[in-house]
Fold each of these.
Amino acid sequence: MGIFSKRKKRGRRERVEPQLFSSRARAGKSRRKAPQRRRSFFRFMAKLFFKFAFLGTVGLTAMFGYIWFSLDQKGLLQIPGREPGIMVLAADGTTLAEQGSFFGDEVRISELPDYVPNAVIAIEDHRFYSHFGVDPIGLLRAVYTNYRSGQLVQGGSTITQQLAKNLFLTPERTMQRKLQEVVLAVWLENRFSKDEILQLYLNRVYYGSGATGIEKAAQAYYRKSARDLTIGEAATLAGLLKAPTTYNPLLHPEAAAERARLVINSMVEEGAITETEARNAIEAPARVAASDYIPATQYIADWVIEQLPDLARNYSESIVIETTIDPVLQSFAEKALRKRLNEEGTKLSVSQGALVVMDTRGAIKAMVGGKSYKRSQFNRVTKAKRQPGSAFKPFVYLAAIEQGYGPDSVEVDEPIRIGDWEPENYRQKYMGPVTLKKALALSLNTVAVKLVSYVGPDSVIAVAQRLGITSPLGSDASIALGTSEVTLLELTSAFVPFANGGMPVAPFTISRITTREGEVLYQRQGEGLGIAITSYDLGQMNLMLRAVVTEGTARRAQFGAFEIAGKTGTSQDYRDAWFVGYTAQLVGGVWVGNDDNSPTKKVTGGSIPAAVWKDVMEVAHEGLTPEPLAGDRENLLSGGPDVFPLPGEQDVSLADDQNAGGSFFEDFGRLFGGGSKSEPDGGKKKKNTAYERMKQQKDSK
């Protein structure tokens, strides 16, 4: 029954179906049910996708938050500022040197030819303007390439990621650091425009050879601004970024050229340049114009910056330092010193030199701290303390002049002995009775030692310090021959009073310091330190020091119609050679020798130093009118020129032990108590007689 009934029902349906539904109707019914099944499937997949998307978003957000808070948050929300820039200007307003970034970023994207940043984009991150800080396509491509090659050949980092690493992260290669890089890249993209990111990158990325930033790189490799780069040069610099050492055009020119061609081809593919421009760039490859030369103005810049803490404190923005440097004279002085050292240095075993020129206010016009700043940054003008030798004698003679001696006072040039010390003249030649004028002109050592014995070492020290010597000075007899070490700067400045009428000066080169916006942070004020030499005594000194140049050891320093005075100096064993000379307008000092204090081949102050001095000072005096030297003119002209027989330059300080034992005062009685060969009355009586004679001469004037 049940079975039948079922069959009957099934049969009835079978009988009814043909009447109620046609084949077309059945087909239509079938077509109406299919879309419902597809919609159900798509709804299922959509729900699944959104679930995964939601979970993925939550996961990424959590990871992002974890990585974000794992970073050191201190200062993270601000791009690290570049060090405030310092611009050092010459007296005429031209730039002598720059340090740091004066205007923040050294170059702006808007200042560069389009192909300069495009070269970097083409080879480093050609989808830079389309990604959000991370390039998924580039990352997948890098993963695939590295998998195929079996080694790490592509990094997949974008320019933004590289910038994030440079600005905020350490160079360690860990997964956490890489994730931090990604997070920071996204943050940078949300905070800055693409051009701002690119500008930050170009100014902070390392290009090799000590150059950070594209401007420094252009200067280092091509000696030009990044604003003036050619396509080939821009491509070469862009190619450096992958491996600054491997593709350094100075060290590996072929590898650099091959890499540059790859960059140029990439630029064509990206439409940054035309095929014609690419062909021209490849056919005329970039030629490096780098040099190991750094101008001597850097010595000045270093010295200026050393003084900043005392003159301008707590500045937080770029500053301008105005100096007294004459850029034309500075350039010539550097070349003149190097030329003389190159021509004569090797054969005479002289490897180094230094010079400084200043006016009669102490304002420095030129300073060269060494033969090559690139090879040695040690400033021998301001830092090297050396024995001045006979260049110290003017202070001895001035002390004597102040105690009554004069240019015509007579002393005996003869061998002398103080304890175990026997100061000798050059080539052990002695001239017998000579005037002080002649003794100073020929730099006779024995006469200088005798003068110290008469006036006392303390008087000489007082004179030297009054005129500007600041280094400690020995208080024994050897001070007569310049055995106490001084710098070229202080010795030269101590000669300024002879040129300016007797006023000591503090040498300087900084005249003013302002911020970039013009706020004055420092302004030099005041002139001179008062009178330290009377006009009469100054006239006598200039008469004698003039004779050093006209008839003495510094004849090589003469030029034109200018009245020139000065003093040569040579230390023991010819280790140091000096000449400090002056006119009524300028004072200059030159030193040559060796940094290791090794002896030269008999180089004296009247040779290379006097020649360099003339070379430089002759140029420095172009356009100036000759003027008389300072001092009592009647006294200065009364002596008249003497023609001295020149047995040799008598300015070698010590022939034996320069630090010979025994106090000068302990040996004084032994040396002078029994009198000299020419005057048997004894040293003390001789001193009193000479003093009274000079006093009478002064009173009669």
Amino acid sequence: MNGSSQAMFSNPALLVVLIPLVFAVLIFLLGEKRSGLGSFLGVIASVATFVVTLSMMKTVIGGGVYEASLGEVVPGINFALRVDQLGLLLVFTAALIWVLATIHSIGYMSHGHSKRRYFSFVALCLSWTVGVAISANLFTYLIFYELFSFSTYPLIVHEETPEALAAGKKYMVYILIGSSFVLFSIIYTYFLAGTLDLSMAGIPALAAQNRAALLVLFWGFMIGFSVKAAMMPLHGWVPQAHPVAPAPFSAILSGVMVAVGAFGIVRTVLNVFGVALVKSLNVSFTLAYIVSFTIIVSSILALNQDNLKRRLAYSTIGQMGYIVLGTVLLTEFSIAGALVHIINHALMKGTLFMCAGNIIHQSGKANVSEFRGLGNKMPLTFIAFTIAALGMIGLPPFVGFISKWYLAIGALDAGGVFFVIVLLISSLLGGAYFLPIIYTAFFQKAEGEAAAGHGHDEHGHGEAAKVESIEAPAVMTIPVLVGALGVIVVGIFAKAPGFPLDIIKAATNILLK
């Protein structure tokens, strides 16, 4: 839907990138003294991006696309945007989580430092994430991917502690390695195919290349994007970055930004190579076994983490494995499960990290072993946490069940009973590291509470100890409750018009023709 140059800036494909970018600049120009206004503008940026995204849904779900070209950069390669079904899915996910996390940030960062820097980079990262999602070719994708990767650094090191700076340094090392592989693969794609366009059927010219060249290209992309997606053994930056980053940004980082790496793998399989070509290379099960190792081992490692955010970080590593696993199994149901898990995981993990932010902000406690009795003091936060955690385990009617159901059916369609077993083991391990948190918070008493409950009133009945509420303020509680509600509603009405499976159905129908 390209218009004239006069109408260019009314094009939703361009607006959805420009809105958060413009607001990021405005927030930075306001200065630290007006950071309160800056945080408000950050919310406006994410809400406006979400509204523009909603305006495109009917057309894109119906098979249409929105396009915008900013001109030819080098002969044959344009800096161009295209909103298709896959791109819309990630844009919708990002905009939704950014709205919740940015509102949550107002409360979490109320006594924080460098708020101008924080809110401007949060808005900036939204712009780059959207750009990655709707890039029309690999050149545009590379530009946004690199901007996105490097703009994450100031948010990871925001607290400026030695631990945060060390995590930021480790992140940069990993990202530089991953980006080098992505750059090589994009250049090699152009060398082999003479084009970088991303189409829903893959790049046809690649099919004429020899198997050895295609394998080099395929694994180059896989290694490069697996760094951002935190596939083992390329995951090392994630468990170190999450505990030190501000919790609302952890919700963004885990819910969306790590998923960008998995989305890169999705684009590689479905839009660079195409389903038929990947099948001909016979690499699907090899990668699926590697991913299965990531899913199981990350869940085992999560069991041993007392720090809540670190436990959630290891959980994220395994959950990204679900997206990659479903993609490489190459069946209709597995791909649908992978794609729907992008938004389902973002809802669940975004809610969990914001809940972690509430807990840390209000109680000063970051370790699970310290949560005894907190469920009674922060009931709304821990109810939201419980809903999201049950979704992560995969219990119906929550969104996590939808993902795992489609992935399991897809694995059976691919003849991979082993991968169904992996999903079942992962769910059991999820229960093993989530349920103790809930039990500790709601059913174990904090030190001193048991003794306080031994008093008796004049009728000889036990006198319950008075529980002092430390629930987070509304600006932090409402986002987690909305997230938890989404975990339920999207699970129950998964196939309703405009819901994730509706978007995905349109995409998979095209991809698997």
